[in-house]
Specification:
α1 packs across α2. The chain contains 3 helices and no strands. It is mostly helical. The chain has a domain of 45 residues.
Length: 71
């Protein structure tokens, strides 16, 4: 398993420790979750931008969707 080091000032370290404790997580788990949440958010935003770019403006009513699905 790899080890990564992050440098923060004392005030930021105190805040990170406080939030990790509040969440009931180790500092490593808290930071890992924060990093992966950020990565997921960036990927979601990229997917949204791509979907908006491809959107042709066509919309379907609830009745049309239900009919298409045979419901």
């Amino acid at each position: 398993m790899a080890t990564m080091t992050m440098r923060v000032d004392d005030a930021d370290a105190k805040l990170i420790r406080k939030f990790a404790k509040f969440e009931g997580k180790t500092i490593s788990d808290f930071i890992r979750d924060a990093v992966f949440n950020q990565i997921e958010d960036e990927r979601d935003l990229a997917a949204l931008r791509a979907a908006i770019k491809e959107d042709d403006g066509k919309r379907y009513s609830q009745a049309e969707v239900l009919k298409e699905l045979g419901l």
